[in-house]
């Protein structure tokens, strides 16, 4: 008998914190069987944390999971137990939720799949894997061959690509004012008509690439509804290679649209090959007879009211590159549109006449995830309103994300609205053109055996003379503050613009720290003033460390490392007449040797990254360099401002 292997792609498999529970294991029909791509926690249960509410779970998972990914098993987290019994229960749970999710899809095979049943010890983290065969669900096979993929991103995006389809629909509903309850029935019928139209012989789908902008980019492929098979079984579809012969559109694989220069880009969602799918309807049939347009008028028999339901569908799917594009459209994109339409309709219907809900799909790829997820947000709520916060908190719980950082706000969403002109920069969000993350790729510190602790996330480099403003000689602390504020913007804790020098001064006057004459002056500010401004403008609290001499700063390395590992925010260092931004420390606890990663706001040149790094404006600084020179002055006291990360999602 052939040995079974389980391949694990996700960097973190255990996401349930402090206790027992159940996690769904996610794979793809385009990967080898038993390949675990990611995991979602089960959050809807019936009393026991390992007894899912299958209806609620399937509703959530249908929205979250892109077409092209599916449930391949379940993992139970708990204390020591009867391993095989619990593994059977885990596999059975995944089999049942698949039935809710997929019904008779895959040719009615949803209940006959071989699935993973896994058990994890909540204390040790040890995981045991079993496989439950579809033909004998209660019989288990223990799996000892577990492969942890080193380059998971390459594995996922070498194999597949994304398909993207936007479909805005305005649906007018007419109903008698005497029978408002008819509006719900009208909505159901109209939505059903839309779903039928997606598979109509008159429909045409156009597939084209938006990630290739050269003259050699492949042309669009047109797929006519009359020639498409919407009832094929994806598991039975024959995959094709790049060298498929023939000019028929249905013979083209998805790889036809994919970049041939993939090696120059990192393997990630932002740089994935993407196929844009557009939907067209043939309104004018070919006819042998000439005829004039005809308009018919049907007057209402009683007073009628109209409401317009606004569907904004946006679907993202994952497909193997060797899958024929015709099946990628019919078996992934169209079912994805139907899923989304039904999901939005079920939310709208209960409040159809009383609320004008603005539901919009957003796609995210949170840290630690190799693939996008989909969320449908109600845009009429502000992002800080409790209802929206609770929605995000629930998502963080399901995905195993931390509760002290906003990873699923609308500003974090992937930018999928591309045109051919913007395709090359599709991963670049709108915003500032300043240099970001200038410390990435700089030479090492030279500390032997040290532990490096760095700023977490992105920031912008603010320095003297930027924006045409001459602050040379007095504005270094202002520039350090601007870099810190940019960090909170880049992590989406705040949408406030980075304040100018005048706005910083205005804030200090408004809180009573400075006199009105301070506005427009060239007076220095220090760590304490920075803490006041961060509190007023962002609501961010700060910790301040005081040292009597620059010679004492190395003694604070352990505390600074702890800050970077747990808070991850940039630190402002002020001493004498100078201010710097600290981005990290490299510290050997045994020898006491250390180095500080300094971002220097005193730079006055243009934003040339090579010039900045080679000139030492961003680099590692030893407290005492090889020539015996002290970077931090021994006759000056220093204040270190450590902004604290807000606890919010």
Description:
- The protein is α+β, with helices and mostly antiparallel strands and 649 residues long.
- The chain is globular.
- The protein contains 12 helices and 25 strands.
- The model is unreliable at 419-431 (pLDDT under 50).
- Helices cover 23% and strands 25% of the residues.
- It has helices at 54-64, 83-102, 105-108, 152-159, 182-198, 325-348, 386-399, 476-490, 501-510, 527-538, 557-566, 609-614, and strands at residues 5-8, 21-27, 35-36, 38-41, 45-46, 48-52, 70-78, 115-121, 127-133, 136-143, 145-148, 160-176, 203-209, 221-224, 274-281, 304-320, 359-364, 373-378, 451-454, 542-547, 571-575, 578-587, 594-599, 618-621, 638-643.
- Strands 19, 20, 21, 22, 23, 24 and 25 form a 7-stranded antiparallel sheet that branches. It has a 6-stranded mixed sheet with strand order 4-2-7-8-9-10. A 5-stranded mixed sheet has the order 14-13-15-12-16.
